[in-house]
Predict the 3D structure of the following.
Amino acid sequence: MASATFLSTLSLANKNYLLLTPTHAYAKGYTNNFRVSNLPSIVVRKEGSVRSQGFVAMQEKGGSTLSDDSRTKTPHVLTVAGSDSGAGAGIQADLKACAARRVYCSTVITALTAQNTVGVQGVSNVPEDFVAQQLKSVLSDMQVDVVKTGMLPSVGIVKTLCKTLREFPVHALVVDPVMVSTSGDVLAGPSILSTFLEELLPMADIITPNLKEASALLNGMQLETVDDMRSAARLLHNMGPKNVLVKGGDLPDSSDAVDILYNGHNFYELRSPRIRTRNTHGTGCSLASSIAAEVAKGYPMLSAVKVAKRFVETALDYSKEIDIGNGPQGPFDHLLRLKSHSQACHRQQTFDPSDLFLYAVTDSRMNKRWGRSIIDAVKAAIDGGATIIQLREKDAETKDFMESAKACLRICHLHGVPLLINDRVDVAIACDADGVHVGQSDMPARVARTLLGPEKIIGVSCKTPEQAEQAWVDGADYIGCGGVYPTNTKENNITVGLNGLKTVCMASKLPVVAIGGIGVSNARAVMEICASNLKGVAVVSALFDRECVQTETRKLHEVLLGSNIGST
Ligand SMILES: Cc1ncc(COP(=O)(O)OP(=O)(O)O)c(N)n1
Ligand SMILES: Cc1nc(C(=O)O)sc1CCOP(=O)(O)O
Ligand SMILES: [Mg+2]
């Protein structure tokens, strides 16, 4: 039985029920549309209200029908907005913002716009009855938590939306009163103003006008100062929405971006440094969607607005150098993923097992002993012929490790050599390294794969066929097998010998690199176990606990070439 707190119990038809408050019910994921077979539920709708305030969810006390702790509700935002062909704003921005904020987003399209970074070249409204059909399809089936509106281009569409929301109440309504695009093009004419004011605004949990939109809603009122914004917020609040966020992005002479949030009781002045960037197209849509996303997760409005603002600012800051389109306003990158692709020198994207040929693993203690920086050690190994580098910096402070890793990454990429990080998935993510190597007691490869995504390289240390099988199941790219010979580099390391290596190679579906006590004198013997998936040797002390890393690497390279491996 759920551990939910509850108002009281209720007896009905000789069965006991828990009576949950709307808040508990919502937090537990029982929306008014929540359907679970055999679960009795009552939905009480308040006439004329879009909110689920009167909603009561009941659960059979002691029953096992709904294990609510095992069934978590996926937060869901429905955006009702126009499509932007340039994908900077509108439906496309809403989808990206919700994805970035990790909520599900469904879409009802109200208009198609032909649009780019220059402006809006054309608009085609979706017929009212088809907007109604889309709304009904989603709302009747998909447990929507929050509806967010953007471009509502006709009176008929606004009325259709309000009517449908009365029929299918949701937890909250976020209204971004889109009227004019950032390029100055009209997206919803003045004719819809009265319907907006009379029907939609009173249903809203929050409205998010910019200065121009607030002014339009207030009969052309001049808004030039933060005090004007406060007055506007109060006047707009009188029109019925529970909260008003007046966005001051266009406020003249302000080095900060100032927004005013008013909830009928308190004003909150939300200030942040203004981000100087051309790539601001779609910030309004994205902010409103992000607020909707946080509300859908169950956060109160003030927290939702703060988090949403911080998210948009972070994305704008990240996207400053993104270069899309020739117009005055470019789109930004909600998912913070585009920039690395535009970096000049980038490594090949897919893992090539022949990269395991001469695998150089750094060691901070050895570098210290020989008085060289990790960067110098990596440079020398690459010059000597290393085909892949792993940074194994057990003693480094995180900040130093990250800085060194970034510098090493630049060098490696200049030479087309992949760079992996040992153990520290966080460092690998932070510096966008090519992948990680993890052992049996490190972060499981499956979790590392989820965090790193499909393209990064993941290696796993394996001493047995079972571990090799698991590494494959977990989505690793290669395995490291050892210790082949005894080593001083790793304490208490079990030696598997050449036989153990061969057994693991035979069982492994993944390419293998041998490790442990390997150097110029025995590399050939290792490679001659004749396993076609043994692609190379990984070496620490034989390269780095030596006076000249480059010379030692070159010697090992020659031995490996002589053993004719990596060719199958
Ligand atoms: C290529 C390669 N193989 C094995 C290891 C060892 O990893 P692990 O078992 O996690 O031990 P540590 O290196 O973290 O001490 C490796 N690093 N690289
Ligand atoms: C880091 C590491 N892992 C091992 C394993 O058996 O998984 S042996 C090892 C140390 C390898 O260092 P050297 O080349 O100096 O012997
Ligand atoms: Mg490890």
Summary: The chain has three domains: 8-60, 76-339, 347-562. The pocket of 3NM (ligand 2) is lined by residues 461, 480, 482-483, 487, 489-490, 493, 515-518, 539-542 (CB under 6 Å).
